[in-house]
Amino acid sequence: MPADTIYMLRHGDCRRDDVKRFVGRTDLPLNRTGRCQAEFWQRELAPIPFWRILCSDLDRSVETARIIANGVGQAAQVHEWLREIDLGAWDGLAIADVRRDFPGEYEKRGDDLFRYRTPAGESFSDLAARVIPSFTELVSASSGNLLIVGHAGVNRLIICHLLGLSPENLFDLPQEYGCLTVLDCSPDCFRLRCLNVAPGLGAMSSETHKEVHLPWNCL
Questions:
Q1: Calpha distance 6→191 (Å, rounded)
Q2: Cβ contacts of 198-205, under 8 Å, gap ≥ 24
Q3: Could you read off the pLDDT of 18-71 as tens digits, one per residue?
Q4: Cβ-proximal residues to 35 (8 Å cutoff; 6+ apart), any chain
Q5: Which of 6, 114, 138, 173 has its Cβ near the most Cβ atoms within 10 Å?
Q6: Considering the entire predicted model, what is its pTM?
Q7: Nearest-CA neighbor of 127 among 160, 95, 164, 100?
Q8: pLDDT number for residue 115
């Protein structure tokens, strides 16, 4: 039997300015807003018994996970396979600079977001091949609730996998900074309890829980 419930959180806000950038392996710490988001979830998730709390080895994920883990008296387990997509030569660059310095490549990416591989980086297809097998092995051996503090790309691919969606649809799933997605597991289906819930008053109240019944996707 897989995990009882999977709580999937995108790490807190880590932006240093208002410029839209490609951020993958660029190792940024949380900003003040990001720390407040993590502290909110520390309080909100404290009553939940977790079998494991996992995060990637990038600072923004580790810091978010450790803040939350302190509230439940557990240590966060760091896993390299949960790292965000490697954007290679584009990592950390402003979108406007990529469009200027890599003529034609930005357009190629737009034509095939799932398979396009940035120069010296990964595609989302590569990312799926790295993340999904390790995730499947973990969940198949689990015996309780899981909290995964991941990244936008990583979380989207895992959610697509669990719900039996084509990974090419990953950008249809919102994953904002510090937002939570919850999936309940039963013997015959996954139930999407909530998607991309922002930290704030009443975030985990019953009013936010929209259940969607989907076919079981064997792990």
A1: 10
A2: 199/36, 199/37, 199/40, 199/41, 199/44, 200/40, 203/40, 203/44, 204/44, 204/180
A3: 999 999 999 999 999 999 999 999 999 999 999 999 999 999 999 999 999 998
A4: 12, 63, 67
A5: 6
A6: 0.90
A7: 160
A8: 98
pLDDT at 158 (0 to 100): 96
CB proximity list for 203: less than 8 A, separation 6 or greater: 40, 44, 180, 197
Q: Compute the Cα dihedral for 103, 14, 182, 155 and give only its sign.
A: positive
Specify whether the CB–CB gap between 198 and 178 falls below 8 A. Answer: yes
**CA distance linking residue 23 with residue 85, whole number of Å:** 9
How far apart are the C-alpha atoms of 150 and 82, rounded to whole Å? 6
Residue 73: Cβ within 10 Å count: 8
What percent helix, strand, coil does the chain show, rounded to 5?
40, 20, 40
Query: Domains in the chain, please, with CATH?
Result: 5-86+122-215 (3.40.50.1240)
Q: Which residue numbers in the chain have pLDDT < 50? A: 1, 206-219
